[in-house]
Design goal:
163 residues, 68% helix, mainly alpha, single chain
Length: 163
Amino acid sequence: MANGDITTSAEKARHVLAVTGADAIMIGRAAQRRPWLFREIEYFLQHGERMESLRIAEIQQVMNEHLEDHYAFYGEFMSVRTARKHIGWYTRGLSGANAFQHRMNTLDTTKEQLLAVNEFFDAQKALSDRLVYVDDECGAAEQADVEETCDTQNNTTDRLIAA
């Protein structure tokens, strides 16, 4: 079993398996941000190429189901606060994500939060029917210095989109 630093790259998963000779890999935090990562890795290992990016509608549905379960489990007050990190993970690296996350941090009800999430994903669908990361590295950022770079890039993108 091999683990560590397999973030969003199916190629990295294949590399780790090849270098270590392990029969399996473990994925941790990356799955919180991209629960569909397992499907991407499995496809890549079977076919030797990346699968098509997932449809935004599918990710929107997954996010909605996740939030509804989260809200039901934690209750109104706590869930709206703890859901912010999950929403941030799902949207990181997507166009307009930084401004969206700032807005998300100002919302105080689950109803407002769910509406904002759906508006965000509807805006993404206007750009493409599939997930498009502004910068693939930002979609995969794990290290603090890369995250700072991604935040700067998202700020620039947010300003361009708002213009």
